[in-house]
Amino acid sequence: xxxxxxxxxxxxxxxxxxxxxxxxxxxxxxxxxxxxxxxxxxxxxxxxxxxxxxxxxxxxxxxxxxxxxxxxxxxxxxxxxxxxxxxxxxxxxxxxxxxxxxxxxxxxxxxxxxxxxxxxxxxxxxxxxxxxxxxxxxxxxxxxxxxxxxxxxxxxxxxxxxxxxxxxxxxxxxxxxxxxxxxxxxxxxxxxxxxxxxxxxxxxxxxxxxxxxxxxxxxxxxxxxxxxxxxxxxxxxxxxxxxxxxxxxxxxxxxxxxxxxxxxxxxxxxxxxxxxxxxxxxxxxxxxxxxxxxxxxxxxxxxxxxxxxxxxxxxxxxxxxxxxxxxxxxxxxxxxxxxx
Amino acid sequence: xxxxxxxxxxxxxxxxxxxxxxxxxxxxxxxxxxxxxxxxxxxxxxxxxxxxxxxxxxxxxxxxxxxxxxxxxxxxxxxxxxxxxxxxxxxxxxxxxxxxxxxxxxxxxxxxxxxxxxxxxxxxxxxxxxxxxxxxxxxxxxxxxxxxxxxxxxxxxxxxxxxxxxxxxxxxxxxxxxxxxxxxxxxxxxxxxxxxxxxxxxxxxxxxxxxxxxxxxxxxxxxxxxxxxxxxxxxxxxxxxxxxxxxx
Lengths: 340, 248
Prior knowledge:
A: 2 strands, globular, B: 10 helices
């Protein structure tokens, strides 16, 4: 699933580089705060273990082909999200720089696709929810298979988005999705089965290895994982925002012939409309346009509109901040009323 | 065993670099976006950039065969994507001697050439930097100590564990008949066994490292700061890349 340099535009590649570098910096900060030398060595050796385990091929039942273990989810289970992310990122750096898997610019995308999703989404939100403490074999199997498949599917979907945004390949979005997702679902199921079998074997042979895996959720971790997911979703998926009218606009167009009703001529309406127009910094989900656009400006026909993307990103952040502030206010108020 | 020599050529550099390692990495980080910024149908633009790694390889006398082998291994996904362009974009782009060249042919060739150019530059440059120097140069450009320690440890122990995994796989294959015994569950047990051995090895390594004064990171000394020569090389290269991009 390695993304390749030649399929990326410098802007998309650079953006993912920035996101992945920030995540590495954040995880490194978390790890250095713990200052646990034994875990530092364990991370290094487990990174080498992933390399080694990938060399052992197995026959995939019913296909006659062979596959190998990926190891992302297993590392997240053994090490927790930050350490697993840094370990997976280090493996990907060595693969990229010394084995030409992907390339230098694609490294940011590859770290995001193959380390962020298993470490920060699949393990905390899917595996732990389903598998719990791993005591039930059925729940362990379901958690492993679901989390491994979901992690791989999110990574594969991200590859499709990055390729489409870069506009180098001519493969249509739908065709590429239909090609990538079923294959990665199958790979994910096999990965999940191997992870489950390895965990079962380890639980029987050396159960102490799996005891440290159930650390409690921390509010900061959940908020950051959701923030990154919201930012990526807002900025990337908004590029595919439909230019067609929404349901309300559609029904208005059917009844009145116009998607927006004209502003009534009263002074209050005109004044408020003018204030709104002045205050909205991204009117109509786009950059504010000058009357005489410059020669380098994006034409309305361009399939990729950075204004829409920035609007999505800004919208996500504003909703996040507003809901956070509202929650904070409610908390204050309820604690105040509770105390009185 | 082939896998035993995964990193063997990285231990002794293939050439001596005229600039510092950090500068070389920064040059590479500048070069790749310039190549990738060449438009989809601009074959001449990519070929112009190919001059730089080819000049570097020939001048430094770096063996090209190992690089070609790795490019070959890395190419299936790129080949698939390039084939997609070839099949989907059939609009006539140019005509030579009554032979119509489609847009897909050009864009597919550009994708393949970009891959060749960027990966050749990457592999040839890094074949000149041994791994411990690579770690040092990463520190000097601000990569966190935790991550550099991690890279150095992964690199160090990949040799040992790859050898161990290779032996386990060979032992399994020798005991399997007609494909039986190579299935998922048996392999998962092998991987589990390798994991247990790995973690106990990590404990022994940690104790040995503690005895030698290890705390939580390797604390590699950062490489020397950029000299005037390095800065001049960066500026000159930037001018050259911009010129290539504007002229071709």
